[in-house]
């Protein structure tokens, strides 16, 4: 573990452009390459998750409870019909979206969202449905997972969706803010990462299948609020980044059955400044691969494997909400060896990061008039 906290490059806007163009296309110098950041689409209400369809159009969620298709020209479809009932409050709403590994054959789409459970309670749920041939609706929707128990709070829903190589689904689940101690309790889904089959039910390689005192869907425990997750294309392992409290945002490589410490150990302090738990280390609890202090509020993650940015190949790109940046983590095996903080001068809360099929990098900005941004080489 090392404490590298220094940005390796400051973003520098170059050139004089007319104001309208300057808003839509900006040039930045990073440590490895000069890039252009351009607006693909705008006027999305707090966009949260992004998935590319086989024809290169994008499915985009809006936290307010809308799912849209965005074409290459940045045109937004009308909201798709057939979505589940979604609880929209605080940090809750329609969250991530992922395509089935066999989407080209079955047209199945997976959504994570806050589901109303009655009496003011809600919980993170996952549903899957078939995208209609005309793209206007979801059909035959089924709820395949529900976080238990539901709770009245409005925060820390987790909700990233990542398929593994076997076609099973990882779902990240937050501690709901007020229930932090339950992240250590394997009898519920609070503060956990779960691993389920595509049709629902525990994946066959899960660690707690034969324990009566544990939920069989659990993969790992001791998480606060994981909002960034991606599969390492070299190893097939899940990588995540989660929010700390005041400091202590973490990058982890969650292994089955392992405990990642929250709220017993943390590299941050509480919002009041009070100490959290027992310190930074405890036997039987895992150390992060990397951490940020002060916090950047990580959200969205992608391993860069494309050909448009050869110098970034193998890097992990992580969006940041509070930090208003993209963190590029250089790696060697399962170690983070360096960090470059990019695009701070955009001044945008970055909610999601994806590599497109064209090899460019796409970002979602988190605001009531959110945008889809594309990063491409300047030359």
TrEMBL record:
<feature type="signal peptide">
    <location>
        <begin position="1"/>
        <end position="22"/>
    </location>
</feature>
<protein>
    <submittedName>
        <fullName>Glucose/arabinose dehydrogenase</fullName>
    </submittedName>
</protein>
<keyword id="KW-0732">Signal</keyword>
<dbReference type="Pfam" id="PF07995">
    <property type="entry name" value="GSDH"/>
</dbReference>
<feature type="domain" description="Glucose/Sorbosone dehydrogenase">
    <location>
        <begin position="44"/>
        <end position="374"/>
    </location>
</feature>
<dbReference type="InterPro" id="IPR011042">
    <property type="entry name" value="6-blade_b-propeller_TolB-like"/>
</dbReference>
<dbReference type="InterPro" id="IPR011041">
    <property type="entry name" value="Quinoprot_gluc/sorb_DH_b-prop"/>
</dbReference>
<dbReference type="InterPro" id="IPR012938">
    <property type="entry name" value="Glc/Sorbosone_DH"/>
</dbReference>
């Amino acid at each position: 573990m090392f404490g590298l906290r220094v940005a390796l490059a400051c973003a520098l806007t170059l050139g004089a452009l007319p104001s309208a163009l300057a808003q839509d296309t900006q040039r930045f110098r990073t440590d490895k390459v000069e890039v252009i950041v351009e607006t693909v689409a705008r006027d999305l209400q707090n966009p949260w998750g992004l998935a590319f369809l086989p024809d290169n159009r994008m499915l985009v969620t809006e936290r307010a409870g809308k799912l849209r298709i965005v074409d290459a020209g940045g045109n937004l479809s009308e909201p798709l019909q057939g979505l589940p009932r979604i609880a929209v409050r605080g940090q809750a709403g329609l969250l991530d979206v992922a395509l089935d590994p066999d989407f080209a054959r079955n047209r199945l789409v997976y959504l994570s969202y806050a589901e109303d459970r009655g009496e003011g309670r809600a919980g993170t749920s996952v549903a899957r449905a078939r995208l209609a041939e005309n793209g206007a609706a979801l059909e035959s929707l089924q709820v395949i997972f529900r976080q238990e128990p539901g709770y009245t709070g409005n925060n820390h829903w987790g909700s990233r969706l990542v398929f593994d190589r076997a076609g099973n689904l990882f779902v990240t689940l937050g501690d709901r803010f007020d229930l932090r101690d339950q992240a250590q309790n394997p009898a519920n889904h609070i503060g956990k990462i779960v691993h389920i089959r595509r049709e629902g039910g525990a994946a066959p390689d899960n660690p707690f299948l034969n324990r009566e005192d544990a939920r069989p869907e659990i993969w790992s425990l001791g998480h606060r609020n994981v909002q960034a997750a991606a599969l390492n294309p070299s190893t097939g392992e899940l990588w995540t980044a989660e929010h700390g409290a005041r400091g202590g945002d973490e990058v982890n490589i969650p292994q089955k059955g392992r405990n990642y410490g929250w709220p017993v150990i943390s590299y941050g302090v509480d919002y009041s400044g009070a100490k959290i738990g027992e310190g930074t280390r405890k036997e039987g609890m895992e150390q992060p691969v990397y951490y940020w202090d002060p916090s950047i509020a990580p959200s969205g993650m992608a391993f860069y494997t494309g050909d448009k940015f050869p110098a970034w190949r193998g890097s992990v790109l992580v969006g940041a909400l509070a930090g208003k940046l993209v963190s590029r983590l250089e790696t060697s095996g399962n170690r983070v060896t360096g960090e470059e903080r990019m695009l701070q001068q955009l001044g945008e809360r970055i909610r999601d990061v994806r590599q497109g099929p064209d090899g460019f990098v796409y970002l979602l900005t988190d605001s009531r008039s959110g945008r889809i941004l594309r990063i491409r080489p300047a030359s």
